[in-house]
Specification:
The protein is an alpha/beta fold. The chain has one domain (11-37, 53-422): Alpha-Beta Complex (Spore Coat Polysaccharide Biosynthesis Protein SpsA, Chain A). Helix content is 55%, strand content 12%. The chain has an 8-stranded mixed sheet with strand order 3-2-1-4-7-6-8-5, sandwiched between helices. The longest helix is centred in the N-terminal third of the chain and has 33 residues, at 3-35.
């Protein structure tokens, strides 16, 4: 081997060790924490009262005339005293009939026009200021997207969490169109898994859960105390980190269900996930160090856990590079390139075989456990889901290098389905 080849081989060896030193411990940590979502740990926090809290239900909508009426109708059908909640729609920089459709459906509509401050974060900040000045006082605000549908028991479930003393609570995000395409199936599999192995596991362990953009509540007192100040591309993540840094944990309500519309095509999905990754990297650049310092100094593991989540894009990129070089090395005509894989430490041992089998079966088990159903379509979409996961690598790279770009892009929603139709389909699957 030439001197240049020897140097390259040595470089790959060191590089591979560094990549796996980043990705493997985080992967193991996520698996261990995720498994706690299946443990029968009871909710030990007692109810502090039986109060019927009042809620301002806020929907941020930009050019959503196709879906807004069904969303408002699902909120009007909530199994909760009608006098204890009001429905507000922010018609944000709309060029269609969103405002009119929302009013016709029974919502209180506020129209906002500000081309210089586009995006959901800015719209919510604008609306919260109006709520603070209203004569009617609300205990909590609940945030939704226009394409959502909401389970009738949503507010009852959130009210129980509010009466346990939680100020910020994320609900269960389900899918209203899980099998419209292989992309919607992939999104659905991800969210079903996240609800169980990320959100519920952290709630059971007493850690800080993550806001997911929609289907969450915040007490008005908390908003007044800390302000919103979350106007980046991933305002939900930014506010979560603000709460964690201020020792305010986000709770999780497994039975407060919201149905979200998933993108139909890879192109739509790519744009949405790129925006998520841009926002993720932006928030990480501003909060990772602060959370690590606070977590270590004050021995607060929730801060460490949130900081680990913030470097997820780096882990995705690292795993992508590891996978790429593993395949290149397999077909390299001259043998070993020098790239070390963790499998080399196990050889052909039963332990390595068990790890591979576990990785293959983990996600299908979670999906089956959550849905209690199986079909040929689900099996087929699981294989396409593997390809969907691979697309995260270039998306994470794009997001990292574009993290300082804050131009907001709208995901068009067209799936016009009512909550009654959705419940009917769910009953047929059961």
């Amino acid at each position: 081997m030439s001197d240049g080849g020897a140097f390259f081989s040595a470089f790959l060896t060191v590089f591979s060790i560094l990549l796996q030193a980043i990705s493997l411990p985080i992967g193991i940590y996520y698996v261990i924490v995720g498994l706690c979502g299946f443990l029968p740990i009871k909710d030990k926090k007692p109810a502090l009262s039986d109060k019927i809290n009042t809620f301002a239900l806020v929907i941020s909508a930009h050019d959503e005339e196709a879906v807004i009426a069904n969303m408002v109708s699902s909120l009007k059908a909530l199994d909760y005293p009608s006098e204890a909640y009001d429905i507000f729609v922010i018609a944000d920089n709309c060029g269609d009939n969103t405002a009119e459709a929302a009013r016709d459906a029974g919502a209180i509509v506020f129209e906002r026009f500000d081309p210089h401050k586009r995006g959901k974060g800015h719209a919510l900040e604008w609306m919260f200021e109006k709520l603070f000045r209203m004569e009617k006082r609300y205990d909590y605000v609940s945030v939704f997207d226009a394409d959502n549908l909401v389970d009738p028991g949503y507010l009852k479930a959130m009210n129980r969490k509010a009466n346990q003393g939680f100020n910020v609570v994320q609900g269960f995000l389900d899918s209203k169109n899980p099998y419209d395409s292989w992309i919607t199936a992939a999104y659905s599999y991800c969210f079903w898994s996240i609800n169980r192995t990320f959100q519920l596991s952290r709630y059971k362990l007493g850690l800080c859960c993550e806001l997911s953009g929609t289907g969450f509540i915040i007490s008005l007192d908390t908003l007044r105390r800390y302000g919103w100040r979350a106007t980046c591309l991933t305002e939900d993540m930014e506010f979560t980190m603000q709460m964690c840094f201020n020792d305010e944990k986000v709770a999780f309500a497994y039975d407060a269900v919201v149905f979200d519309e998933k993108p139909l095509t890879l192109a739509q999905s790519w744009r949405q996930r790129k925006r998520w990754m841009q926002g993720h990297c932006d928030v990480a650049s501003r909060y990772f160090t602060k959370l690590i310092k606070k977590g270590v100094k004050e021995r607060k593991f929730s801060c460490i856990d949130c900081a680990v989540y913030l470097i997820q894009p780096i882990r995705i990129i690292a795993v992508g590079i590891i996978t790429f070089f593993a395949y290149v090395q397999t077909f390299y005509p001259e043998g070993n390139l020098g790239f070390i894989q963790i499998s080399y430490l196990f050889g052909n041992s039963w332990l390595w075989t068990a790890i591979v089998i576990f990785q293959m079966l983990y996600m299908p088990f979670v999906i089956l456990y959550e849905r209690r159903e199986i079909s040929l379509k689900m099996v087929w979409y699981y294989f396409t889901y593997m390809y969907y996961n691979l697309t995260w690598v270039p998306i994470a790279i794009q997001g990292f290098f574009n993290r300082n770009k804050t131009e907001w892009s709208h995901t068009k929603h067209t799936r016009t389905i009512s909550i009654d139709e959705l419940n009917s389909m769910r009953q047929r699957r059961v």
